[in-house]
């Protein structure tokens, strides 16, 4: 019983489907699927039966005037202003809370800032004007997008540099692998892995095997010479 | 009495971890077989004793033993029994004990399932796990003792569990998350053992793979449940806020994902060795960093525990020893290891390298976004905040090449791939995904929205490509039915996980684009129309819960054509002991959209502020996460991981 | 060269941990005092105890003062009244209150009622000490928003010309006054009263 996952194996014996390894495996998977289903159901009835007309849910135009609509807490002259207001309240940080934007917080200062934002948007100020207004009073802290300066520029530069340097590293590695100094691995483990690979790859496999043997011969010859 | 027993058990566990951290490791250098053999029973004993400690604390919570400080601060006799039990991990001290218990559980599991490992390797791995255990048990015992008493003056009633945590999501979310975090300790220990031994062959990678997959599976589920819990419990319909605590769990996940892919290369091709080891160290290091960020108070977060610089200093020293030590070992050992495998520029190796590059860049983005405000402030440059706008912008640009690469990757062969044979299938995939994406846009009559279209295109590209790749592979086995049985479980797992990713990006793009919300003042009988649904407020009445009061609202939802959709019940609770307001949102979930209503404050004139949301495809985000973890589970069942390793055979020959 | 590359992760981590260490001993919620150096924003607000009297920035000029944002609903504010009274009596610090009114919650039947509020304030000031020259009533919290106030208590030092010279979030205790505010106040008080 010298196996890595002995208990699992015990369940998997006599498996008809070697790929998915055994009835126990299948039942584990289906148990998982059931849990998955239960999760989806947890809030209401059957979910997977998606609604017959999903179309309207994304229809943006709406006959709001058709029904006696209740008063909106914030009434806007245009849809753009509403979107701007929603965007701003999501981007502005409540200065008193742990870590919440002013849209989601009910702290007094968040409510006041929401009202102010609404007022400013109603006055026709654009996004930057409103942000400047708040930053003038509460500092950069109040906006979830940091200002760009000599230091913060690294927020954008560092990831780009990492991306580039990691790709360069790979190019360099590949450039190195052609140098004849190196040999192809021939420890038993790798070879065993090699035989393990997808049958579909056999053609290229044998070709590369040939290359590998050639390399070994060349390497052998060189080491004798030096 | 029972809490003292728990503390005693924890002390014993500390003793076992110290022996485990010393004896087998020393034995591995002196080739002392008996010292190595002692590792497994020690690991089991350590687990049993941490479990006893955990049960003792649970007992104290269950029986409302307010003479225990932790119970008094985080529970009350009014709590239902199941929340009394989950309150065990509702505080810093209790959750630390759970962390310790889970770490010991993984340690014992490695001992139990590692019969295929050579004794030397097993001893080293368990030894390293023992060393990590020492740190955490000591932290729990000396810096945040969950069994501390309030005697002689104990309160007659506890100050209750944080109302945010009184939810079913909390019952399983933290245990799963911790299983994931701590699970990476196993990959870490495997890497350290390999660094000590200096052997990094494919066998090593094959041993480490199932453990990494298992940890990743739990972490994926944990993060996903956390997101779902925030969505339904915080009352503002958000599913991810880029909060430092969320980021702390996202970073190890990203590195863990990279590690899974890099391990595949190391196992199959014997290359990327130093890279894989670095990722294995990185995944757990970031878990530790996350624990530090959450528990030290260096960052402001909605979810963090109370700040205490003393604990922070302890954890930081621990971090320096574990992460600094392992990186030093890495630097001194790894530079001499060279992989010699050959591969061409267009090969599976390079594709997976690309995957790693993007995942690592994403990790750096999250790390910078989380810690840069701290750095900025400590440099004396003032306070800044980094949140959604920054992360969304960066992830938008990172996701495009990543998804394109992901669609192509599984088609590409190891070592070398000629471009010509792939042209036809990839063109087919491209056409199909265009049809699917544009078809969906047309069917939903939606306005042209760049983000939604892009999300659909990328999702379809990844999803269609994954399905077609499996189909093509199955055909190569001769007949389709033969192929279904022959294809490895790990290949199915990969395909499902990739489809999960596709589902998730579609969900994110659609939700971000088409979500709508209205903040309205409603009197009883009022109706509000949003996105084709009409919400009618029918009744609002007073609530009487066991430990809360408040108000509840009843709403009916109809389509605009009048067909009845559902009834919704939203609550606004006021928890009496903690004097905290909580919204219990009403949610009606369908695969195509969620209806989400939260009840706000009462307004003058017998009216209420009510927030109504319609969130298309939001459920796809979590469905995607579930599919990813399902993929990991199926891959775990691959029989390859349960076969005798060549080394073990040699050792027993 | 190759060898050096392998030390990069270690160096990066050590650098990061330096910041983590210093971060442990500073408050992550501290904000920048952006109002410093700016004149008081325009306002015209009534006196809390005598609403007929209206205060504007010009009416406050002439002498530096400590502007204290507070409310009776805030325990920390009440607790610091004693020390501030001491500052007024012993050091002659001119302290003006900016009364921060909490929004009323109709769910609990709360309505804004000035006489009731005045009575509450008088009781508190009698109980803990009265450091104020007078109090400005900011019922809509508009001035507070313009000053970048996020809650109570907060403090501003304003010079004789009406320019904000310091902004302190949180309470004033002997240590805070000595280390952070006293020097600023003395600098501007010394200038105007030689």
UniProtKB/TrEMBL annotation, chain A:
Residues 64-186 form the CcmH/CycL/Ccl2/NrfF N-terminal domain. Keywords: Cytochrome c-type biogenesis, Heme, Iron, Membrane, Metal-binding, Signal, Transmembrane, Transmembrane helix. It comes from the Bacteria. It holds the Pfam family CcmH. Residues 193-204 have a biased composition (Basic and acidic residues). The keyword Nuclease does not apply. Gene3D superfamilies: Cytochrome C biogenesis protein. The chain crosses the membrane at residues 153-171. Residues 182-204 are annotated as: Disordered. The keyword S-adenosyl-L-methionine does not apply. Possible subunit of a heme lyase. Belongs to the CcmH/CycL/Ccl2/NrfF family. This is Cytochrome c-type biogenesis protein.
TrEMBL record, chain B:
Its main location: membrane. It is a multi-pass membrane protein. The chain crosses the membrane at residues 6-30, 42-62, 96-113, 125-143, 178-198, 210-230, 250-266, 278-300, 312-331, 352-374, 394-414, 426-445, 451-471, 492-514, 617-637. The keyword Transmembrane helix applies. Keywords: Cell inner membrane, Cell membrane, Cytochrome c-type biogenesis, Membrane, Transmembrane, Transmembrane helix. Residues 89-296 form the Cytochrome c assembly protein domain. Pfam families: CcmF_C (PF16327), Cytochrom_C_asm (PF01578). InterPro entries: CcmF_C (IPR032523), Cyt_c_assembly (IPR002541), Cyt_c_biogenesis (IPR003567), Cyt_c_biogenesis_CcmF (IPR003568). Residues 316-639 form the Cytochrome c-type biogenesis protein CcmF C-terminal domain. It is found in: Cell inner membrane. PANTHER family: CYTOCHROME C ASSEMBLY PROTEIN-RELATED, CYTOCHROME C-TYPE BIOGENESIS PROTEIN CCMF. Belongs to the CcmF/CycK/Ccl1/NrfE/CcsA family. Required for the biogenesis of c-type cytochromes. Possible subunit of a heme lyase. This is C-type cytochrome biogenesis protein CcmF. It comes from Alishewanella tabrizica. The lineage of its organism: Bacteria, Pseudomonadati, Pseudomonadota, Gammaproteobacteria, Alteromonadales. The gene is ccmF-1.
UniProtKB/TrEMBL annotation, chain C:
The keyword Disulfide bond applies. The gene is dsbE. It is found in: Cell envelope. The keyword Nucleotide-binding does not apply. Residues 34-186 form the Thioredoxin domain. It comes from the Bacteria. Keywords: Cytochrome c-type biogenesis, Disulfide bond, Redox-active center. This is Thiol:disulfide interchange protein DsbE. Its main location: other. The lineage of its organism: Bacteria, Pseudomonadati, Pseudomonadota, Gammaproteobacteria, Alteromonadales. Pfam families: Redoxin (PF08534).
